[in-house]
Specification:
The chain is an alpha/beta fold and 362 residues long. Helices cover 15% and strands 28% of the residues. The longest helix is centred in the middle third of the chain and has 13 residues.
Length: 362
């Protein structure tokens, strides 16, 4: 039996295990040896002991805030294949590093901007990306740090519930995100005159709006992001994009008192006047929609309909990648899948969906 485990920065324990049969000489190569039945995953999965990690306590989420330190995983080999570990035969520590040597981590407190800039170790200037997370409090740096390892100057941008940013906003102002774009374009180590955007969930929605209203955006990757304004209105200059209507009566509650919010938001293409739709026909950027087919928060069919409208406007600079079974949370490779989380509006546990193996493959 092989087992991996680690504690995150809050002390929460995550574990995964799988039984294997070693060769006669005692060697075990996970790239060529499938699991035996009875573990956290099955089949030929060399990285399964990472992507199958799940919290010991229900509903806990892997949190990594400090990119300057690695994740320390404990790898253990036990005798036998039973449900209870046998004798410990061997163990080792494994580090997962977020910052390669030479990558600079620069806290940014310019004007209203609250962010962290990651700069690659190579010769500047670098292509620039602004990374915007979902409707979650704080500043998330893991994607930005990993992108910097691969040659991108990446700004991890906070936009609410962080330091002196709004704690309970009634609307978001696109001027704040425009200030972040300008900061990157004016930076001496960022290659202009255009910038890429990477957004997840609400961050994907905001990134699409930035492409529609702001200049100098060359590309957007929207990960499970709505194509219309949701929950919190968006303002830019004299324009206000209202939110899609929400029908709380459609919320379903299962036996474990977990919410299913998959049908609470009105179809953006059936909403009165369609005022909540982001006017993507104005965007000149290349747009990549990364969606799941059965998202509990964002339906991929809306991205498909958006692309039909873009095509009708004579645009061809868009693409959809749709993955079944990935869930709403879409992290970098080999992160722990977050199946059930706090809904950002209702503040109760809600189904985020997904399957471990399908999420990892995507």
């Amino acid at each position: 039996m092989l087992r991996t485990s680690f504690q995150d920065e809050r002390g929460e324990l995550f574990e995964a295990c799988a039984p294997y049969q070693a060769e006669d000489d005692g060697e075990l190569d996970l790239a060529h040896c499938p699991t035996l039945p009875g573990g956290s995953f099955s089949g030929l999965e060399p990285m399964g002991l990472l992507w199958a990690l799940q919290p010991q306590k229900p509903f806990k989420r892997l949190v990594k805030r400090d990119m300057r330190t690695p994740l320390h995983l404990l790898l253990e080999v036990f005798e036998g294949h039973g449900p209870l570990p046998g004798q410990l035969l061997a163990q080792a520590q494994h580090e997962r590093v977020f910052l390669w040597d030479g990558v600079q981590r620069v806290p940014v407190r310019e004007g209203k901007i609250r962010a962290t800039l990651f700069l690659p170790p190579r010769e500047a200037p670098f292509p620039g990306i602004t990374d915007i997370h979902g409707l979650e409090r704080g500043l998330f740096e893991h994607r930005a740090s990993l992108l910097a390892n691969h040659g991108f100057a990446t700004l991890a941008l906070a936009y609410y519930q962080y330091e002196d940013l709004p704690q309970d906003p009634t609307k978001f102002h696109l001027e704040y995100f425009e200030e972040a774009v300008n900061y990157m374009l004016w930076h001496s180590q960022v290659k202009g005159p255009r910038l890429g955007l990477l957004g997840y969930s609400k961050g994907g929605e905001l990134s699409l709006a930035m492409a529609a209203f702001l200049k100098n955006i060359t590309a957007v990757a929207s990960i499970n992001g709505p194509v219309a304004t949701t929950f919190i209105p968006l303002c830019y200059k004299d324009k206000i994009i209202p939110t899609l209507p929400v029908d709380e009566k459609r919320v379903q509650v299962n036996q474990s008192n977990i919410l299913d919010c998959s049908n609470i938001v009105t179809d953006p293409f059936q909403a009165p006047g369609q005022q909540s739709l982001i006017p993507l026909e104005k965007a000149e950027a290349n747009i990549l929609f990364i969606t799941r087919e059965d998202d509990h928060f964002v339906k991929s069919e809306y991205s498909i309909e958006t692309c039909k409208r873009l095509k009708a406007q004579g645009k061809e600079n868009f693409h959809i990648l749709s993955y079944s079974g990935t869930g709403h949370c879409f992290y970098p490779p080999f992160f722990s899948l977050y199946l059930i989380g706090k809904h950002p509006i209702f503040h109760k546990w809600a189904v985020l969906g997904g399957e471990l193996k399908a999420n990892s493959k995507a």
